Amino acid sequence: MPRTAIVGAGPCGLALLHAFEQARLDGIDVGEVVCFEKQSDWGGLWNYTWRTGLDAHGDPVHGSMYRYLWSNGPKECLEFADYTFDEHFGTPIPSFPPREVLYDYIVGRAKKSGVRESIRFDTAVRGVTFDAESATFAVTTESLENRCLSTDTFDHVVVASGHFSTPHMPEYPGFQSFPGRILHSHDFRDAAEFAGKDLLILGSSYSAEDIALQTFKYGAKSVTIAYRHAPMGFGWPEGITEVPALTHLDGRTAVFADGTSRDIDAVILCTGYQHHFPFIDPYLRLTTGNNLYPDGLYKGVVWAANPKLLYLGMQDQYYTFNMFDPQAFYARDVVLGRTALPDADQMAADIAAWRSKLDAVSGVMEQIDFQTDYVRDLLTLTDYASFDLDLVRQHFVTWEHDKDESITGYRNRSFSSPCTGTVGPAPHTPWWEEMDDSLSRFLKP
Ligand code: FAD
Ligand code: NA7
Question: Membrane-spanning regions, if any (predicted)?
Fold first, then answer.
């Protein structure tokens, strides 16, 4: 039976372990499955760390999440179809939970499926090479506790190491001599640090949107967001403004493309992340920017150039856990030979068809439809539990409209579960006034 290595025990790695466990429960011999996780615990990005820079072992810190992070989409749009929020919490909860609540939910399913013993914690994957003769991978890992390297042979490798961890950090003229702090959103932890400050944020996507709101909510004096191509255009509270691209800093003065300028105390680069896989041999390595259908992956999962290598969760994400799950079930079936792959030409044609469909996509609503279609395609290929995908799509559309209506109020809205129909109750405190992001506070009736 096959030996399978999984890199990372975040939501994607845990989804795959769960998928293998479901097959095992059905009496299928899944072979040997080992998940290597460089952190001491599971949950990936949801496993919050105060650390920035290097971790306790001298590796780059994986975590990019920060205090006061509430889900940026409705929880009903990410619900596990085979482990609902109702099952986990035993009572309906509001639609936009803070990080600790979602972490609890992710871990709840992993505990229920009993997959912890398949994970080797504090173990970093340092090398993945393929031997064509034996058609196996040599996976080199480092035990971070004793610094021992060891190499094992596997038939399949599944990369689930995430792609929102290695920052993309552009430099602008004047950064070198700026007297304040310049940091990337990857290193942002506590909004309260910026209380009383005039802040400049670069970028116009999710991190820029949320960190602008967070810092202002927790006391920043002003927040200026400089966009490169187009403003986000939300109805920001007074004190947050969007301006055209930064041209340069002159001392602590930021100068923008329209000739205006502002004095600022700190800069937060919300400029995105790199897909970074230093542990994989270059010819096996996925090379892509952050988009909805990375090139080279059949069904968004199988590395077409060598189908014994698979990647999970490498797409830009509207859908998250309920996309990772069908990906994981599909990956499992490919590994176990329960799903036959077409020949190389057919895989290339399928990838090309999705990529050209993506090229024609314009605007947020079409992006949502594209990813919905992708998830729908995956669901037809797997025995993952069914859920009302059209309702999830509709929720995403409503959510986008809610944000346009009120960027500080959209997290007070309620959505219905695509699995159980349960409607999330309104939160006891409007999000804009809620300062405490703890699980106990959120679940308080
Ligand atoms: P990760 O969560 O990144 O997990 C990857 C795991 O791989 C980590 O545990 C890491 O330690 C491990 N790893 C990496 N390299 C190695 C190695 N060489 N050896 C061993 N282990 C390794 N999604 C939502 O649904 N809702 C949200 O509100 C939301 N907010 C977000 C906010 C921020 C700031 C960020 C950055 C992302 C957010 N996301 C959100 C998206 C997030 O990407 C997914 O929810 C999810 O965490 C992705 O899971 P993953 O398993 O692919 O990757
Ligand atoms: P994204 O969604 O990849 O967005 C990156 C943003 O950074 C995007 O708006 C880019 O501008 C902007 N960018 C990139 N390079 C530059 C430079 N050189 N100057 C100015 N702006 C730049 O990353 P996020 O961190 O926002 O979101 C990632 C995940 O974290 C997401 O899933 C969330 O849930 C949380 P562009 O739009 O291309 O003009």
Answer: none
